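Long-time lurker. I teach an intro course on protein structure, and each term I like to show students one example going from raw sequence to a predicted 3D structure in token notation. This year I'd like something fresh instead of my usual example. Would anyone be willing to generate the tokens for the chain below so I can use it in lecture? Attribution to the forum is fine with me.
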Amino acid sequence: MKQTLVLVLIFLIFSTNAQDVAILKYNGGGDWYANPTAIPNLVDFANKNIGTNISKDPQAVNINSEDLFSYPIIFMTGHGNVLFSDDDANNLKNYLISGGFLHISDNYGLDKFIRRELKKVFPNLEFKEIPTNHPIFNQTFKFPNGIPKIHEHNKKPAQGFGLFYKGRLVVFYDYETDLSDGWEDEIIHNNPKSVRETALKMGANIIEFAFKN
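-- Reply from a regular --
Happy to contribute to a lecture. Here you go:
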């Protein structure tokens, strides 16, 4: 029965919305809806530069919804508290081990909460810093030094962390860089064009990696 369920979930991931992305809607009071222009801008950039055909109207999907399984990649951001129920954690785990991919962008203040809650999803997994030779940094766009620094938070170096399930990267977490701020409309953060392009290129790599893997 469990094997049948997993096969059904895998089918859903690669069916209707196999070339679309979604935004994770979670509980706890954190602003999951932060950076509203980020994903539409990233999608537009990806469609123009890496040959994707993603809907420019990304949907917000509840973490405990079966709709999660319709998307090969889910984006998550925010500044504040995150709280996963047992059902939330179980649904997210099933999504990820069935072929899904989660990108988390720390919009400042998310770190302690997301690390705590992901322990409910994968109690035995630890975040590992992703080496610069990993494929996620070597898709259409090359990042020989790893994840780029986009925003200054605590004067710490930008880091890309990952959770690996049976050797597969299932969660990519950008820390002390805030890629999603770099994807926002220029007027919001006044980032120079070169910084925004760097952030968008890294974001496109994440999408490309998720679609391939």
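Some talking points for your students: The mean pLDDT is 90. Strands lie at 21-25, 59-62, 73-78, 102-106, 128-129, 159-165, 168-175.
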